[in-house]
Write a structure and sequence with these properties.
Largest sheet: none
Structural class: mainly alpha
Shape: elongated
Radius of gyration: 23 Å
Distance between the termini: 76 Å
Order of helices and strands: HHHHHH
Helix content: over 70%
Number of helices: 6
Length: 122
C-alpha cells in the first residue's frame, strides 16, 4: 500500500515538473480563468448583503455573459474546464442574486402592500 502511494506521489511530482504543465501555467488557459474567479467570489460574498443594492440589469448581463462563456469553454479545443467551472459557478451565483433582486423588487413589495391594505381595512 505504501509503495503505491509513493509511486503515485512520484508521478504527480513528475507531472508538476513537466514542460507541458509549466507551459500551461504560463498560458491564458490558466491565468484567464484564475482572474475571472473574482466575479463569482464577489457574487457569493454578496449573498448576505441587502438585496436593494443588487443591479438587476448588471446581474442579468452577467448571467448571459457566463452562459456564453460556459459554451465557449466547452467548445474551444482543448476544452478549458477551469474556465467552464468558473462560469458555471458564476451562473449559479448570478441566478441566486437575480432571484433575490426579483423577490425584493417585485414579490415582497406585493406582499407588503397587500398586508398594509388588509391592516387598513381592519
Amino acid at each position: 500500500m505504501g509503495s503505491k502511494i509513493n509511486n503515485l506521489g512520484k508521478k504527480l511530482v513528475g507531472q508538476l515538473k513537466s514542460k507541458e504543465f509549466r507551459e500551461y501555467l504560463m498560458s491564458t488557459h490558466f491565468w484567464g480563468p484564475v482572474a475571472n474567479w473574482g466575479i463569482p467570489i464577489a457574487a457569493i460574498a454578496d449573498f448576505k448583503k441587502d438585496p436593494k443594492f443588487i443591479s438587476g440589469k448588471m446581474t442579468f448581463a452577467l448571467c448571459l455573459y457566463s452562459a456564453m462563456f460556459m459554451r465557449f469553454a466547452w467548445k474551444v479545443q482543448p476544452r478549458n474546464m477551469l474556465l467552464f467551472a468558473c462560469h458555471f459557478t458564476n451562473e449559479g451565483a448570478q441566478l441566486i442574486q437575480l432571484g433575490r433582486w426579483t423577490d425584493y423588487h417585485y414579490l415582497s413589495k406585493n406582499n407588503q402592500q397587500s398586508q398594509t391594505q388588509q391592516v387598513a381595512i381592519s
